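Homework help thread (please don't just give me the answer)

Our assignment gives two proteins as sequence + structure token strings and asks us to describe the second one. The first is just a warm-up. Here they are:
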Amino acid sequence: MKKYFAELVGTFILVLFGCGTAVVAGDKVGILGIAFAFGLSLIGAAYGIGPISGCHINPAVSLGVFVAGRMTVKDMLGYWVGQFLGGILAAGVLYAIATGVGGGYNVAVSGLGQDGWGAGYQGGYSVTSAILFEFVATLIFVIVILGSTQKSAPAGFAGLAIGITLVVIHIFGIHITGVSVNPARSLGPALFAGGKAMEQVWLFLLVPSLGGIAAGLLFRTKALEA
């Protein structure tokens, strides 16, 4: 249970500070600031809870780790519960903070850092662009995670490498989908934003999971395993 609770805490950190930066300070710090908020939050969580659970804080990552043969299905399901609860709790705290601003805050209009695509969202990219970006970005992200945490990788540097990769992914993709690569990160804000966010959340639950599976297979088949 300690591992599953650690995953809840880590996902809470990622979603609160990543999405929170987008909601509260996005107009001030821009894409770079939001990208670093997500990446640095992951680095902090990695060194905070990594010794307990490995700091997946992402159901697509846990799925990739399972497919690669590095965890049991029982642990994967336990990680998923912790991760989704952490994302939902973080979105709830962010909602409470955002709606307390002077003059009020309309989540339905201004959002809660949710992911999306199409007309009226960020760059207005198509669903095809959203699917392609989320699949490739998650594939690369999980490859970095599995590669930097294998036994022959330099010890102690995985969290830094993974966090920097998440920064780069956000710099590239925020204008496309807002960047998910993480079903728990997407579901939490979508539940509170409702409307179109909930209509589109299927993509961010499914496609990153497929990217995680593909990455896991590359290590399972020894194509990238050292």
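The one we have to describe:
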Amino acid sequence: MAKQAEFIRKPEWLKTKINTNDSYKKLKHLMRDKRLNTVCEEAKCPNIYECWSERKTATFMILGDTCTRGCRFCAVKTGLPSGLDLGEPKRVADSVSIMGLKHVVVTAVARDDLEDGGAAVFANTVRAIRHQNPGCTIEILPSDMKGDYESLHSLMDSEPDIFNHNIETVRRLTKRVRAIARYDRSLQLLQRVKEIAPNIPTKSSIMVGLGETTEELIEAMDDLRAHDVDIVTIGQYLQPTKKHLNVEKYYHPDEFEELKKIALEKGFSHCESGPLVRSSYHADEQVSQSAAQRRIKYMKGYESQEDTKVDFHF
């Protein structure tokens, strides 16, 4: 039996401030009232108090709260999901309106039980948000849909402003860290998005502290750039429960700054790198000027066609 890695105490820079003020409480109540899930809660994100209390932002997690995969880094519940909630896109759009968001991130559990991996619900959620909130930019973070590029085309027809798909870790550790997902399939998915929609920025995220080397991190950056990925986020892996992978190393903030410097030198248009950075952290700051201009165009079109009905389809 392999020896379990020695427990490493969390350093001071990873301690977060708990702030359950009125903004936090109102947002939590809204999510319960609308029967919505957020990756902020389900994945035990360390930034939940900052985002919900100060920035008033959230990452909606659609397609239920049960993932068909059992990745060894993730706290989201795994199992066999039951059915589809066809009213979910409208409730997400309603919540975006109530919160007055200018940028929204929509992610989902992996739904390998569905023929299209949930692409239709994803697309309908984007359309619903845009119909009710024409000035809001939208970032999506889907699974790899097992490389089903027909479903990817269906999803991209909804025209999100940023397409985000995470490689999570370096090539050598992928099999150990991620369930079912493949390193090269994720890269190919990101590349295919660029082929479908060259003007839509693509984004990916890497966790550190799982036993990777600096050389492997640099190689992962090179792989992302070779597949035309525009934005990268780099954050510290935190073990959610004792059943998950151990933390092999806590990176110092200075090391994150160095990784950011390397990423920008590689040609990424934006890099968020820090101990508490997660894929959707400060996502509103990563919206390109072209995306903002597209939203202005949508708003003008919306104002002249207020009675236009959004086209939902499955």
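TA reply:
I won't write it for you, but here's a hint about the kind of observation we're looking for: The longest strand covers residues 202-208.
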